[in-house]
Every structure is written in C-alpha cells, then in structure tokens.
Amino acid sequence: MKMKRIVVIFVLAVLAVGCGSDKKSAQAPHPGLDPGSPFVIPSEVEGSDPQRGIDQCAALWRPEDGTQADFEVFVREWLAPTPEARRVLFDKLSRMLEIFNTGYNQLTIELGRPTVLAEGEPAPIDYLLAGYDVAAHHSDDLFANKVAFITILNFPHYTLEEKNALGAGWDRYQWACARLGDVFTERVPAEVSQRAVSARSAAEAYVDTYNIRMGHLLTEEGERLFPADMSLLSHWNLRDELKSNYADVPHANEKQEMIYQVMERIVTQEIPAAVVNDPAYDWAPISNRAWKDGAEVSLPAEGDVRYAHILSQFHAFQEVDRWCPSLPTAIARNFEGSLELSDREVEDLFVRFLSSEQVRQEAALIRKRLGRELRPYDIWYDGFKSRSAIPEDQLTAETRRRYPDGEAFHRDMPRMLRNLGFDAVEAQFLADHIVVEAARGSGHAWECLGRTEPARLRTRIGPAGMDYKGYNIAVHEFGHNVEQVTDLYHIDYYPLFGVPNSAMTEAMAFLFQVRDLQLLGYGRQLIDDNATLDIFWGMYEIMGVSLVDMYTWRWLYDHPAATAAELRDAVLAIARDVWNQYYAPVLGTPDSPLLAIYSHMLDYPMYLPNYPVGHIIHYQIEEHLRQCGSDAAFAAELQRIYRQGRLTPQAWIQGAVGAPISVDPILTAVSCILSK
What is the mean pLDDT of residues 301-315? Predict the structure, then answer.
C-alpha cells in the first residue's frame, strides 16, 4: 500500500506548498517593496478585497521586477476593475493552470518511466533524467513575465485559519478563487527546488530496488522457509508476507520471526549491504552470518546508507526554508501547508488514540486468538480480515488466473465498479480514463492533472501474473484512480480538482481496498465488527510509525549539523522511545526499533501521518456510508463526496459526514464491540 504520487508542478507545490502568507516578512531573502510605501487603490475597482492582493504582490516584488513606480503602473493595469472582469481572468488563469499541469505531468511521466516501470533495467542516465524537475524554472518564468503577480493581485492567498473561518460562507466559485490564490505564494529559486527533487529521486531509487531474496534466508539450522524465487521489497512486501502468515500455513510463526529479524537488521543497518537484492549470497538474519557458494564470508554492514538519504533531503529542504518565511520549516510546510492540519493537531489525535484503553482491550483479544504472548510484529496482526481464513496460495491462484497481466486487470475494472454500485455508463467512463502499468516498486497511483489524460495504476505483476499481494495493492491504487478521475473530470472549477490532502485520497483508497474480496466474488463486504477491529488495529500500528517520522524531523531541526550516523542513532532512540511508551506495555519486548522500518521515511518524509489521518477519515466515511443501504446508494454518495473537490480538510469532512475530524467514532465503536 503505497502513497498516491503527487506531481510537483506549476508551483502548486515546488516542494514548498503553502509557504506563503498575506504578511510581508523581513526574513525573506529578497524582501519586497517598502511596506510603508503608500498606494492608492484605483477608485474604479469594485468589490473584493484589492488591498490584500496588492500587499501580497508587494511582498514578493523584487528589484528586477521594477521600481515602486513600475509596481503602481502594474497594479493599475492589471487589477480587475469589476467582478465580471475578474471572472474572465479566473477562467483564463484556470485554463492556463490546467494546460501547464497537463504538459509537465506528461513530461515527468515519460522521463520517469524507465526507473518506475518494470520495462527492463534502467541505465544510469535514466536516474538522472528521472530526477530532473521539468517545472523547476516555471515559477521564475511566470514571475518574470508578471503572470504570477497578476494571479496574486486578483486572487490573493488566504491562510488556513482564514479558510476555515470564512469558508462556510463561501460558494463554489469563491472557494475556487481561494484555491487559485494558493498557487503562487513564494518564489523558490529553480536551482533550490531542483536539488530537493534530486534528493528525493535518489531516495526513491534506493527504496524501489531494496529487495530481500527470501529464498536465500536461512534459519540457524540452515533451513530455507521461503520459495527459492521469492523476492520481497522492503518494507511493503516484507510486511505483507508477514501478515499472510497469520493464516494456517506451514512454518507460519517461524517465518514471521525471521521477517522481524530482517526488519530489525535493516533498521539498525546491521544488514550486510551485499545481500540486498543479490541472490549470490545466503544470509541468516538472526546471527547475521552470510555464505557464498556454500562458504561463509565476512560482509560489511550497510552502515548508515538508509539514514543518509533522509539527511540529504533535510539539507535540501533547509535551502527551501529560507524562501518560506511564513512556514519556515519542512515540518510547517508539510502539515500546515500540505496536510492543512498542524503537526501538534495531528500529534494530539494520535496520542489520544494510542493512549486509549481500547488499545489494551483489543490487544487482549488478539492474544487470546493467537494463544500466545504477543510479539512486536503483531502490530500487523491480520486475523480480523476474512481473507486471513483463506490461504494466500488459494487467493494468489485466483488472482493469477484472472489477471495474468495488467491489461486483464484493466478489462475487469468496469465489472468491479458495477459490483460496487456504479452504473454501467459511469463504470465504463472511469475505466476508460485509467491505464494499468507494471511497477518496478510496490506500486502507486499517478494522478491525471488535465482532462485530456488518464490516471495511472501501477502495481507489481510477476511473470506468473498478479499475486494476491499485488492485487490487494492494485485495488488500493484503483481507489485512488477512481477518486482522481472523478474529482477532476466531474469538478465544476479546475482549481478545486482533487481532495484537500493526501490523507483524504488515502481514505478513498482504503474504501476500495477493504472490499478486495468482494471484488473477487467472495460476497459483499461491509464494515462489520471484524472490519472495525481491523481498521482500529491498523491505525494503532501506523500512528506509532508516523510519530517516529514526525519526531525524527523535529530532531533534525534541533540538530542541523548531524551526521548520517548520528541521525541513525537518533532515529533508533526515537523509535524505541515511542515503542516503550505506547507499544511495549501492550505487546511486550521493550526497546524494539521496529517502528522505524517504513520506507516512506526515506523517500517521502512526513508523508506517513497521511495514512492514520486517512484511516480516521476512512472510518468516519464508512460509518456514514453504512447507512446508505445498497451498493447503488453507496456509489452515488461516494461520488457526491468526491465532487466536493479541494476544500480544507475540516470543511471537506463536514460536507462529507457532517462532523469534524475525530478519533472518537472508532473509539466508541470498538468499546461497543469489545463489551459484547
């Protein structure tokens, strides 16, 4: 289950989404015009709040843009004098935004194909091309030709606090104008944003090729527990293989213990570098010994390579920081700017959940079901899903029969959508606007950004066809794609396309993923007691992982001169601290570093909190959809929710279910279930 890929283009992000504010700041590297300079608003201007746009333009105006007199001429020429003139400008700029987004998206897709799709081995040049930010100079160009200033002048930026306060009284057009005001908020130099993109691309390449050759893992007695040809990507496929062994399969617990040892070696970086993605070596992860051609060999540990990728991105983001005085850290930009929830607000949600008595109560139920004391890897307990009672080999045989390749999965999409209640016309429309591609990594959904292109579903497909793990991920990404197509092609104003943040799109993907067996013909899947307990336990796992990610970045800003080795030690300490506070009292085994295993910590820093926030929202929506009564009503209500578009998260969830974001609904539900 991997994130929705969001293309960073047309300054909709530039790795600094939401940097801006309507306040001038002397901290900016290039302060704008003198804030005390008088400016008389033209008398013919009607309505709106022209002073806000003028002030924001002045804050970003640089000497190379012109003098004070030039600025006044610019304002008089380009400030729309009437609401009608402003609407014409809105339509023109919206069309421009879509054209640029579409074009840059296509370039980014094509440059990245060799490194992200399973189409042969990429050449070294492919990684350089994939790391090229095709829109790196676009912001500079649009400020230089004044298009960015024209946008800011007529469609100024509103802070998150202002949007939440004022948005309830806005109509759809006013919301769209406010979102247009989010496009240009800072001027990050092209070379700065390019370095950030390159650092992320390098981390992503490292993650996407980090495979463990499971058939070459040995027990201390020299036994092989896994098929000879099994190769699992860390961490996703390792986790999913561990989860599959909660079914009644041979050596299930032995396999789980071995995978846990592999994960610990990866996190601590004690894993021999040579055994990663190399079938030439056999490796016993418990003792950390290795063999080649039957002879034991001494191999150097990976050391701190994993943490060097995090550090590289931190240094790149530090350069971005100085251009974002209103949100001057990657933490602020990620949460207040991108997620549109503060990191403290998110932390409070997680801590309230992790500290709840319901966690201990559910753990006691799991302990009883397993008939043994809990182990750290039981954060991935999979016994609440109906599929856990079905051997994975049986599920894989079915998915391989149905989906020998991506095209077969694509052909089946209309049927799957009809199964969920979409009418035949809409089901075909959605399928026609999605393409399926074989991924080199675990898979992702690449969104469409213009109404002339498809969304892309990318998933790992083996030579024998799509195994069950790949199918489950594909259904998750399919959920992303349906959302992406719906809230783009059926949106009323282009600046509102999409959902408020990545957590919302994860919630939409979860809605599909929990119905994967229904789509295979195993009967209708509803959010019953087992499903609620499963969602709850998944939230428990991912919230701890997210806190480790968040605390790591706070530590980095407190220790900006840290080395990769120092960062490694800090992350391990943070992971153990979070474990000891919220997990050891429930699962036992103090000081486990397991929570640091997630690969998104490397290639998409601070993305992880999107998952638990997405789970919270997913459950709130499931509770709402439960009352629909039929699949047709389910699909219709789902489409209504999608078509709200990109409001703020709190406004969006209020429109969706009539309540704010809260963990209380699932805490209450679990209490009721466990008290039966």
Answer: 97
Which residue is listed with tokens 């220790």?
A: 559
Identity of the amino acid at 190: A
The residue with greater pLDDT, 282 or 322, is 282
CA distances from 397 to 58, 474, 517 (A): 64, 16, 14
List phi, psi (to 5°) of 456: -120, 125
Tell me: pLDDT of 19 over 70: no
Q: Residue 439 pairs with which residues in a beta bridge?
A: 117
Please give the single-letter amino acid code of residue 626.
R
Assign residue 47 a region: left if phi > 0, alpha if psi is -120 to 50, beta otherwise? left
Token digits of residue 57? 């333009």
State both tokens at 212.
């463990």
Q: According to the model, what pLDDT value does residue 461 have?
A: 87
Look up residue 420 and give its two tokens: 């969920």
Residue 484, pLDDT score: 96
Residue 452: other Cβ atoms inside 10 A: 10
**Burial class of 287 by CB neighbour count within 10 A (0 to 12, 13 to 18, 19+):** exposed
Rg (CA), the chain: 25
Sheet hosting strand 4-5, strand order edge to edge = 4-5, 443-446, 455-459, 434-438
Q: What is the DSSP code (8-state) at residue 215? A: G
Q: Which token pair is 478?
A: 């399919």
How would residue 502 be classed by pLDDT, with cut points 50, 70 and 90? confident
27 confidence band (pLDDT: 50, 70, 90) = very low
Q: Are 567 and 307 in contact (CB under 8 A)?
A: yes
Could you write out the three-class secondary structure of 311-338? Answer: HHHHHHHHHHHCCCCCCCCHHHHHHHHH
Provide the mean pLDDT of the chain: 90
- Non-local CB neighbours of 128 within 8 Å, separated by 6+ positions: none
Which element (helix H / strand E) includes 290?
Answer: strand 289-292
Question: What tokens appear for 262 in the block?
Answer: 């592999």
pLDDT digits (tens, 9 = 90+) for 107-141: 999 999 999 998 889 999 998 898 888 887 888 89
- Burial status of residue 300 (CB atoms within 10 A of its CB: 0-12, 13-18, 19 or more): exposed
Separation between Cα atoms, residue 389 and residue 676, nearest integer Å? 23
Per-residue pLDDT at 7: 35
Question: Residue type at 449?
Answer: L
Tell me the one-letter amino acid at 95.
R
- To which residue do tokens 């699962």 refer? 587
End-to-end CA distance of the chain: 32
φ/ψ of 12, rounded to 5, equals -65, -20
pTM for the full predicted model: 0.80
